[in-house]
Amino acid sequence: MSKDKLWGGRFTQPTDKFVEEFTASINFDKRLYHQDIRGSIAHATMLGKQGIIPVADVEDIVSGLKTILEQIEAGEFDFSVSLEDIHMNIEARLSEKIGDAGKRLHTGRSRNDQVALDIRLYLRDELVEVSAYIDLLIDAIIHQAEENLGVIMPGFTHLQTAQPILFSHHMMAYHEMLKRDKARMEDCLKRTNVLPLGAGALAGTTFPIDREYVAELLDFDGVTRNSLDSVSDRDFAMEFCAASSILMVHLSRFSEELILWSTSEFKFVELSDSFCTGSSIMPQKKNPDVPELVRGKTGRVNGNLVALLTLMKSLPLAYNKDMQEDKEPLFDTIDTVKGCLKVFADMVREMKINPERMKTAAAAGFSTATDVADYLVRKGIPFRDAHEIVGKTVRYCIENEMDIPALSLAEWQLFSGRIQEDIFESITLEASVNARRATGGTALERVRAEIARAKEGR
Ligand code: ARG
User: Fold this and answer.
1) Domain 8-107, what fold?
2) Which ligand 1 atom minimizes the distance to the CA of 86?
3) Contacts of 105 by beta carbon, 8 Å cutoff, 6+ apart
4) What residue ranges of the chain are covered by domains with CATH 1.10.275.10?
5) 25 Cβ inside 6 Å of ligand 1
6) Is 106 a catalytic residue?
């Protein structure tokens, strides 16, 4: 007999020990204890208000659940694998404590709508936290952009020097990405913050429950509209994991750049010692472990998304036990993303940049070639012809082992008679940067305005 099981009535054989362990989720879903208790208190309160169970029982249930909450928080609660999951662990303990009143708690409810509720409650709080962590990183980025306003670095395409840009402009590109990441989290919250409780196992309940009241007690924006959907979809979790993957892809690109910029070949930035480690054999090494690890953790967050999508794919309605597998990828994504954002925010805030190295690199690699072409266009030459002229100039420079700024006026005029003395002021790094002043461009005045805008937008 399965006497200890809450569902043991129709069984004659005990559960196989290994199967019990295999099917249990308590080891990972115990993190939902707070949500489970909060949901049960709201459910019991509603049952009492509706006259479905006696009000005296509700009082016992609420105080019993509060005691259990304290015990869990004090580390005094013995979680049992034979009770399978957090829902049955808590309910069984409650009944042990308060008897029949405890056994009335599950009236008009199923673990299927209960678990859907718990995950939504849990994710809802985490979405707010993740957004706050994104803000931390956004602040650090704005801080760097503001502190170093005016520093010029090479902008790259294909990792080849392309055009000079402001370092602050580069930083603010990540600000844009993170703002969108945050907006995705906020958007996901809208669809997460809906009450599924009341769906029962799948079809609803025969009791005269008041779902709107429960939603109010639990601060939900509304109630779900279809019981089958309520217990069987996890799209809100998939959405969070997708938004997290995109966020991590952004962090991985930022990581990659910091790793590259910290090399002795680049030396654009120096990460604080507290974010790096040494080598056990090579004494000179200072390895950028933190960005490397964040880059690596992107793989696991992407993996969690794929795990969740694959888990849900082709599942028939409504609940299936497969769905118990939703929790670990979700929890792992939450933990990983929060950890990465936190460590990244501190690292970015503390990193030192090397303006001289950036400027020297920005001046090399024919970075102002486009500015020469634009100069020629302003002198009346069609852009395609201007492009051709500058191409030839660059070839001349390569053959003579020099860069554009070293050309004399006489040399310039070998390529076009339209080139005058004013070419020199048009191809300084500052002129190149500041000429790009349309919205979204790298001009100093433009970037300064974007930083101010970003600070206001917070
Ligand atoms: N531990 C289960 C889960 O996480 C709770 C729901 C169980 N429902 C059921 N019908 N077996 O999905």
Assistant:
1) Fumarase C; Chain B, domain 1 (1.10.275)
2) 1
3) 40, 43, 44, 47, 61, 91, 94
4) 8-107
5) yes
6) no
